[in-house]
Structures are given as C-alpha cells and as structure tokens.
C-alpha cells in the first residue's frame, strides 16, 4: 500500500469533514499516535486518518470513500482489545465508533435492547438495571470496552461459564458491509431464515464489516447470589476441585482461579484478604433462585473440601462479595507490584487437563528464566498465564514471546484452542495452523470473501500470511486507559 | 463401500421426496467414504442430499432433481464423552435419543429436546436447527454446538470450532452450518456442550379460558423471578391433546427442573402467580405422564396423531404471540379449517398446524398466505415446515430473504460453486 501523499490527505480530510462535520477527523501524527495500539502494546501501526462518525449513514459514506480511494479501513471501539485486532495494519482509516454510544431502545416485555456499537458494556447494565435487568457478557474490561468491540471479538468474561459468550446474547445487527451497503442481519425475532449471518459476524474481528446497531438479549437479574472462596495448598487440588464441582452436577455462574504470585501482587496492592501462603484460590459464584441456594453452596463447599481445600469462606453479604471479587478483578493492575511488565496469554483447554497444563505452563516459563502469574476462568478452561518480565533486559521480551508460543502449542496438543476470548488479530495469526488445517482455513477465507471480497476491511488479521506493515515491539507500555485505572485486561 | 450400502432403481422408491425419486441412495460407513462420494458427485455434477432420520425432510422447496441421497445412519458412534469437560463428540448419524441414553448413563445430557428424538439424528437436528420446549432456558443448537466436521462440496474434510467450551480462534464456522439444510456441506461429526441432568424435572400444566389469558400468564412468568426450563403456550385444537380439561381454551406448559428445593418453590410460586390471572386448573406432572405430555406436544403436525394439511413455523416477538395465535386461529376458521397452535412463549416461536381431514387445497393456500401476511406485518417471519407438493407449488416455503440474500448467495457460490449440495430447497432458491 503506497503511502497517501500529503496533498491527497488534505483533500480527503476536507471531504471527510464535509461528511462528518468539524472535529471528527484526525490527521495530525501526534493525535494519531493514540490510536496506534490496542491493549496489546506489543504491536503498533499508524493510521492516515482517525474519524468519528455518529450515524450508520456516515460510516457507510466513509467506507465508500475508502473504497473509492483504495484505502483500507478498520473499526475501533475503546481499544481495549488484546490481539492487535483493531490496528490499521496497512494504514488508511480508523473508524472510531466512540461517538455512537446510545442505548436506542429497551423493550422490557421482550427482553431486548438495541444499542449503538460505541456503548460501553457496563453502561448497558446500568441503563437496564433499575428495571431489574442486566446484560450478561461481562468481560473484565467492561468498564471501558464497547459492545461493538465485544461483537468483533465474541467477548467472554467470568460469568460466561453459565451464561455463554457474546454470540449467545446477540439477536440482530445493523451492519455497514465492506462495500458500504447498510443492512440488517437477523433482527429481534429468533430463528431468522437463511444462514446464521449474525453468528458468523460475531467474532469475525471486524473483517466482515462494521456493526452500527446491535440487538441484544437482556436478562432478569438473578434472585440470589452466593460467592465462595476456597483456598488450597497445592495448585493441583484447586484444579481438581473445578472438575469435582462440575462432577456434582453444578454449573456455577463463575469459577475463577488465582495463583500464589497473583495473590501476592493483589495483597501488596489492595489487601483484599486472600491468604498469601496459599498455592491457589478458587472464587466460585452461584446465582439463581434463592430456594435451594444454600443446598447448592453446600455441594460446592463439600467438593472443595474433598479436593483438599484448607479453608472455604462464604461471603456473608454484598460487601464481602465485592471484596472477594476485587481480589480477582484487580489482579492485572496489581502485577505492577511484582514486575515491571507482563504479557497476558489467552488459551483454552478441556478443564480436565488443568493440572497437567498448569504444570507445563510453569515449566515452560521457568525454562526461560521467567515467572508466571495465573488468574483465569477455570470453569471453562480459559487460561490467562501472565508472563512477568523486565522489558529493559535485552532479549527478555523475545523470550516472553517464545514461551507464549510454547504455551499455545501445549493448549493445542491437549485438544484446546489458541484463543478463548482475546481473538487472533495480529498476535496469533501465525499460530492458526496449530489448530486448523489448510482446508479449514481455506473455508474461512472463502466465507471472508463473501463479505469482504477486496480485503480492505481490516486487512492483515486472523490468517497466517502476513504482509502488514506492523511494527513489533520492542517494549511493553501500559495502555493509556490502563494507566488511568479505567480497565482491567480480562 | 460395498453393494449392500448402495440402493438404485426401484429400491430408491422408499426415498421419494416431493414426488421425485432419487437416482441412488448410499449409506457410507466412514467420513472418508462420505468425502469420496461427494467428490465423485461433484465431478459428475450430481446433486447430493444428506439424509439423517428424515424427521425434517419436509422443510424446503421441492428439489429440481433428486440425485444422490446420502444417508448417514451408519455414522452413528459416540466418539468421545468426557463428563468432567461437559462435552461430547459424536458422528452425525447418531440419533439424539441414542445420544441422550449414552450421556444419561453418566448423569449428563445434551440440553436440546427436538421432537422425534428417537429418529432425529444429531446431524439432521443441526442442519435443520431443530429445537424443543427447553430452548426457553437452554437455548438452541447455536448455543450448544462448539465444533463440527463437515465434508465440503469438493470432498474436503473441514473442521470448524473445536472441542473446548470457549473458543474464538477463527470464524465461527459451526454457526454457519446450523440451519443450512445441507446446502454448504455434509455434517459428519459434531462436538457439543453438555449439562448435568437435573435432580428433578416436572411439568406444570396450567389451563386457561382463552389464549389471551394464557398469554398474559406467560408474560407474568417472564417478568417474575421464576426460571422455568420451558414455557409453552398451547391453543386451539392442540389443547385437546393434553387430555380432558373442561372448557379450557388454552394452556401453559411450564417445565421446571433443578434440585428439589428449587423445583418445589417454583411449582408453588407458579400457582400463586397465576391464580389471579384466570387460572382454571393446574396439574403437576412427573415421570412418564410428563414425558407423554411433552411428546404429544412435539408430535403435533408430525403425522401420527392426526391428519395434517400443512404446518407453518412463525417467529415473532414473545409479547405478540397471544395476539398472533388468536388471529391465526380466526383466519383458519374463516377459511373453514381447524388449527392447532403451540408456541415457545418466551422466545416467540410458534408452530401452526392445519388439520387435514377434508381440508380443501384452496383454503389451505389461503390460510397459509394470510398467516404469512399477518406474521410479516408484525415484523416476524413464517416458514412452511410441511405441506403437500400441490400446496408448495402455490405458496412459497420460505420468506423473501431480503438484502441479506446477497451475502448468503455469495457464501453458497464460494463453498459450493457447482451447486451440488442439496440445491434449490433453501432460502432464496439456494
């Protein structure tokens, strides 16, 4: 892709300003810098333009303009992604959806909300909360990440163990296709006829077009919640407890594991009351009807004790519950206490393989002379090893990347996946052959062509041939929103 | 493959569909055999129609040519079941009933309850996106399928998704094949999420004077703290299938499952909540009577219980259902026909069945046409799930797909460029 000349840039800028109004187009290199990375700061790529439309028609006009000029384009939400998925890998336009952030309609009778893509995830639950409803997918960045970004990545979160991920909650999408046409895929009613284009679009990482309206299910808040913290002296015991709870016929709303390094960091930073000498802690949340809740909690407690838990605590009230969750949710901010930098990994394994894989993760990272903290969605086998390192030490970042690759190989070997919720983006495109054959990838490419035949819509992502002009490394930097304490990583 | 697994000539007459006789019927015994057959058909330009248990074979426009019918009944193994992972992988020709029996031995189930589960195969249920009453709480195939293997139009074996319950690597291909009716590939294996079987599973049958009251009661349940597994609304002729019940014109079938304390609280709470809403009678069923009631409901419109003139599926908003059922019954009556109406009240999916005995073709066509206009006018969609060929020649099976047809056609053209996979039966002529 030849760079856009300064003259062409000026005239395009004027054209975009005529479309969007003043203050909605950035071309100044200093301003563009803010948009060169997402939450994974290892990759950087600079756009030629960052634009801020407020309507689907404006998005469509921008996409048509980009096509006319042969420029690539990519949609961007809050930039909390963790795979480089919203980077302008080949320059061109970054279409920020942050000014399209309204809740357009809430239909409580039918339990559906229609929102714009730039709406912050948590703000939807705030909007419907007073009526006793909430939006179930809860990525840990939910205070900052947007529903549109969640659509791109099919985001999960702690409570997806029971409630499913984003795709299980999306009914319909108004999209701007890569050629600029605006159309609805699906709608408010179930089982729309034809191929499940909504199901395909969700998780397509911005390569099928740009969602401009999103129809989601909203759920009634559960009548009761019970939160349990189980403390273990051995990590294997905690892993076994996960299977034991499932084995007793229970599907908790969430089941999160936190290891010793992470507990230490959390206690240093926030003092949430987790025991520092524990090898691992499991945070288990049950929700649903008040009737029978105690009996279910008893089953969970017994399963933990039978697996060797040395202590099991039940939160007595909402304040205690929030305290326990603060320990889990503040883990990422806390790693700064124990390491200058860390790289978060995202792999999935069958949950029965947890003891083996956690041992392998520790061995792999130790072999590179590094340390790893684990805090993750144990219930659905979604690992998040955080490799701790010092970017000032020469070669250490390369070791982190190498160790990360080996961890993904282990996940693939035990029948797992290379991403549970962060997406493939730029980061993992070259690892796709670990779990997909040539035939599998060819099928995906053909589906992509049906939506995005020119490839201009978010090029360079997902597929393992890379020709993108992306700068890799060298150093980890906290993302601006992380520095502001606005978001957790996952 | 062996001659025993190939039918030709007069032996194909058992597999006649919409008046067309297949040119051959084959029953491959392995994924590789499926791949070789599809590749061969592709070279020869012969259309291929996959066949599971045949329970949803009536859905679709009449095929222009019925070439090779590819039966999957010999691919019927449960390949993996790891209870600790709550996942299972099975071949596509395994019936859902047999799968559930195997999973049940270890206290688990696939939380999908399509009608005709003893015959319906896993592959067929996925390809037709079949579901049942428990979709209210547990969702449909798109919420449960985590990985699948298909044989593509070129004979390539393609895998999508994986074997883990959470996975965002690559495009979500399993979603594409759900409800694609064999037009993009032959599903040969699938991996699904499972659930523990509930300790207790009961059915509350609540009868009401009319649909309006029953619909109001369904909405009251939706707005309450109750968490039923199923919430079905039954109206018109369908109420008779629930057995004697006085003058009740409608009923709610409410499934509640879980541990005993939860189920008992819910049963009691349902009674309390519905008492002031016109409740005429409630019965709580368990064991075989519960299973019989659910089965009777699922079999409406599937032959067996009565002569059927046509079956239509509607998708509308849940809050519109009662009105649609009421109006729909009136439309049938105006055309001199009787209708049995059932609906999954929480999700807005209805099945409208026209009783057959003596139904005149013109009246059936008129009713289906008016129903489609009614549902479409309310922003919903309507699908003729079954009708005689003479009716299908006058009433479209599918709705007009609208602008999204462009993308659907594009996908079809790229995955099946020669158009050999079950051509002509799907939405928009795909």
Work out the largest interface and the residue count of each chain.
Answer: A-B, 87 and 85 residues
Low-confidence stretches of chain A: 481-490
The CATH topology of one domain in chain A is given as Alpha-Beta Plaits
User: What's the helix count of chain A?
Assistant: 16
- Main sheet of chain A, how many strands, which sense, barrel? 7 strands, antiparallel
Strand order of the largest sheet of chain A: 16-13-15-14-19-21-17
What is the helix tally of chain B?
13
Architecture of the largest domain in chain B, CATH level 2?
2-Layer Sandwich
| Mean pLDDT over all positions of chain B | 95
Shape field of chain B: globular
Assembly state of the chains shown: heterodimer
* C-alpha end-to-end distance of chain B: 30 Å
Helix coverage percent of residues of chain A?
25-40%
Beta-strand content estimate of chain A:
15-25%
The CATH topology of the largest domain in chain B? Uridine Diphospho-n-acetylenolpyruvylglucosamine Reductase, domain 3
Q: What number of domains of chain B?
A: 4
Instruction: Catalogue the unreliable spans of chain B.
Output: none
Radius of gyration of chain A: 22 Å
CATH architecture of one domain in chain A: 2-Layer Sandwich
Q: What is the strand content of chain B?
A: 15-25%
Record field, number of beta strands of chain B: 19
């Amino acid at each position: 892709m030849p760079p856009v000349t300064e003259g062409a840039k000026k005239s395009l800028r004027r054209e975009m300003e005529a479309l969007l109004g003043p203050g909605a187009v950035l071309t100044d290199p200093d301003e563009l810098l803010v948009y060169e990375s997402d939450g994974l700061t290892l990759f950087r790529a600079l756009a030629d333009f960052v634009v801020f439309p407020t309507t689907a028609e404006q998005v469509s006009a921008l996409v048509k303009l980009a096509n006319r000029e042969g420029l690539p384009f990519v949609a961007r939400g809050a930039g909390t992604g963790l795979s480089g998925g919203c980077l302008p890998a080949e320059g061109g336009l970054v279409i920020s959806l942050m000014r399209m952030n309204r809740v357009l309609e809430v239909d409580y009778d039918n339990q559906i909300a229609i929102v714009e893509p730039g709406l912050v995830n948590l703000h939807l639950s705030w909007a419907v909360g007073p009526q006793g409803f909430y939006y179930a997918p809860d990525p840990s960045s939910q205070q900052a990440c947007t529903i549109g970004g969640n659509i791109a990545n099919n985001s999960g979160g702690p409570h997806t163990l029971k409630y499913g991920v984003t795709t299980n909650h999306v009914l319909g999408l108004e999209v701007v296709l890569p050629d600029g046409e605006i159309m609805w895929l699906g709608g408010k009613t179930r089982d729309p006829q034809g191929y499940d284009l909504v199901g395909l679009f969700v998780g397509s990482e911005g390569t099928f077009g740009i969602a401009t309206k999103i129809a989601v299910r909203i759920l009634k808040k559960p009548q009761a919640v019970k939160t349990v913290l189980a403390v273990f002296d051995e990590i294997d015991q905690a892993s076994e407890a996960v299977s034991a709870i499932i084995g007793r016929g229970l599907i908790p709303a969430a089941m999160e594991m936190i290891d010793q390094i992470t507990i230490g960091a959390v206690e240093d930073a926030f003092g949430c009351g987790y025991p520092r000498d524990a090898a691992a802690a499991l945070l288990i949340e049950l929700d649903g009807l008040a009737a029978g809740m105690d009996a279910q909690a008893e089953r969970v407690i017994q399963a933990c004790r039978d697996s060797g838990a040395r202590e099991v605590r039940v939160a007595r009230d909402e304040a205690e519950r929030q305290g326990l969750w603060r320990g889990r949710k503040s883990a990422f901010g806390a790693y700064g206490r124990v390491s200058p930098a860390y790289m978060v990994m995202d792999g999935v394994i069958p949950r029965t393989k947890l003891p083996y894989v956690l041992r392998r993760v520790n061995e792999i990272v130790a072999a590179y002379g590094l340390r790893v903290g684990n805090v993750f969605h144990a219930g659905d086998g979604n690992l998040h090893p955080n490799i701790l390192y010092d970017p000032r030490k020469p070669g250490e970042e390369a070791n982190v990347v190498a160790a990360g690759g080996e961890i993904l190989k282990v996940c693939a070997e035990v029948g797992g996946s290379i991403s549970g919720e962060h997406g493939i983006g730029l980061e993992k495109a070259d690892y796709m052959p670990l779990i997909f054959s040539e035939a599998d990838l060819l099928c995906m490419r053909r589906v992509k062509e049906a939506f995005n035949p020119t490839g201009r819509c978010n090029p360079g992502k997902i597929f393992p041939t890379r020709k993108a002009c992306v700068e890799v490394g060298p150093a980890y930097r906290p993302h601006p929103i992380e520095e502001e304490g606005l978001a957790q990583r996952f | 493959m062996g001659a025993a697994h190939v039918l030709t000539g007069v032996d194909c007459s058992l597999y006649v569909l919409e008046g067309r006789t297949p040119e051959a019927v084959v029953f491959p015994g392995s994924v590789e055999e499926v791949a070789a057959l599809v590749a061969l058909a592709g070279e020869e330009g012969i259309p291929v129609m996959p066949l599971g248990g045949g329970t949803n074979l009536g859905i679709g426009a009449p095929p222009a040519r019925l070439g090779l019918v590819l039966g999957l009944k010999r691919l019927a193994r449960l390949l993996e079941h790891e209870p600790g992972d709550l996942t299972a992988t099975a071949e596509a020709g395994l019936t859902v009933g047999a799968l559930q029996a195997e999973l049940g031995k270890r206290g688990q189930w696939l939380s999908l309850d399509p009608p005709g589960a003893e015959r319906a195969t896993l592959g067929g249920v996925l390809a037709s996106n079949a579901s049942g009453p428990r979709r209210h709480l547990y969702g449909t195939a798109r919420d449960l399928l985590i990985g699948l293997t298909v044989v593509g139009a070129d004979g390539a074996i393609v895998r999508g998704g994986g074997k883990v319950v959470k996975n965002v690597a690559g495009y979500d291909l399993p979603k594409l094949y759900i409800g694609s009716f064999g037009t993009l590939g032959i599903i040969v294996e699938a991996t699904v999420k499972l659930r523990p079987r509930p300790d207790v599973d009961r059915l509350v049958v609540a009868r009401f004077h009319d649909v309006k009251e029953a619909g109001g009661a369904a909405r009251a349940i939706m707005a309450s703290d109750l968490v039923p597994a199923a919430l079905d609304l039954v109206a018109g002729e369908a109420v008779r299938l629930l057995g004697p019940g006085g003058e009740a014109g409608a009923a709610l079938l409410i499934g509640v499952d879980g541990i005993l304390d939860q189920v008992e609280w819910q049963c009691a709470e349902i009674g309390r909540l519905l008492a002031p809403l016109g409740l005429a009678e409630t019965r709580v069923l368990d064991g075989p009577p519960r299973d019989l009631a659910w089965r009777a409901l699922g079999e409406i419109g599937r032959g067996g219980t009565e002569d059927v003139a046509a079956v239509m599926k509607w998708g509308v908003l849940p809050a519109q259902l009662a009105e649609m059922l009421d109006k729909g019954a009136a439309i049938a009556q105006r055309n001199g026909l009787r209708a049995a109406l059932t609906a999954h009240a929480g999700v807005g999916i209805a099945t409208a069945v026209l009783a057959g005995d003596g139904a005149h073709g013109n009246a059936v066509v008129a009713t289906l046409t008016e129903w489609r206009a009614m549902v479409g006018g309310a922003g919903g969609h309507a699908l003729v799930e079954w009708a005689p060929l003479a009716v299908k020649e006058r009433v479209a099976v599918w709705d007009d797909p609208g602008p999204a047809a462009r993308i659907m056609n594009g996908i079809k053209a790229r995955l099946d460029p020669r158009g050999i996979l079950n051509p002509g039966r799907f939405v928009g002529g795909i």
